[in-house]
């Protein structure tokens, strides 16, 4: 399975008097192909009425740390440190991870908690908030 970011545009009610506003939201889901991602996203968004799927792009997250209670998602760039035996220098291989957290400091804590059993040496190169609204993992029926 691969992870796909889908950007959806639709009319959303923004207050109690029924005023509508066009909004764009990004969702993450795992699927086998672009076609599968588009079909799953369409099925998930049917209840919102008319919408446009602006983009579907493949993204690489090697790990997701989801707590299912926070509303924000942060992308972390983590460098795994290895030693080049021939030259004796350290090398870093960077991977992207997604963390669900309420704020930046909680994202750091959740990442470190999720990585506590990792045997490899690593360093956190960057953490930034993403526009992702929700994550839909593939569910086997």
Structural features, described:
- There is one protein chain.
- The protein has 141 residues and is α/β, with parallel strands linked by helices.
- Helices cover 16% and strands 52% of the residues.
- The protein is built from two helices and eight strands.
- It has helices at 34-45, 104-114, and strands spanning 2-13, 20-31, 51-59, 63-65, 72-83, 90-101, 121-129, 132-136.
- The protein has a four-stranded mixed β-sheet with strand order 3-1-2-8, covered by helices on one side. It has a four-stranded mixed β-sheet with strand order 4-6-5-7, covered by helices on one side.
- Strand 1 (2-13) and strand 2 form a beta hairpin.
- It is elongated and about 65 Å long.
- The relative contact order is 0.22.
- The mean pLDDT is 92.
Write the layout of secondary structure elements.
Blueprint: E1 2-13, E2 20-31, H1 34-45, E3 51-59, E4 63-65, E5 72-83, E6 90-101, H2 104-114, E7 121-129, E8 132-136
Parallel strand pairs: 2-8, 4-6
Antiparallel strand pairs: 1-2, 1-3, 5-6, 5-7
């Amino acid at each position: 399975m691969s992870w796909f970011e889908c950007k959806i545009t639709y009319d959303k009610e923004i207050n109690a008097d029924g005023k509508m506003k066009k909004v764009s939201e990004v969702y993450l889901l795992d699927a086998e192909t672009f076609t599968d991602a588009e079909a799953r996203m369409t099925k998930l968004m049917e209840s919102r009425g008319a919408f446009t799927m602006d983009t579907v792009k493949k993204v690489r997250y090697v790990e997701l740390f989801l707590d299912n209670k926070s509303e924000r998602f942060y992308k972390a760039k983590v460098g795994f440190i290895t030693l080049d035996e021939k030259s004796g220098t350290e090398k870093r291989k960077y991977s992207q991870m997604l963390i669900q957290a309420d704020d930046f400091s909680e994202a750091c804590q959740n990442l470190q908690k999720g990585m506590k059993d990792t045997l490899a040496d690593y360093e956190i190169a960057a953490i930034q908030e993403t526009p992702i609204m929700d994550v839909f993992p593939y569910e086997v029926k």
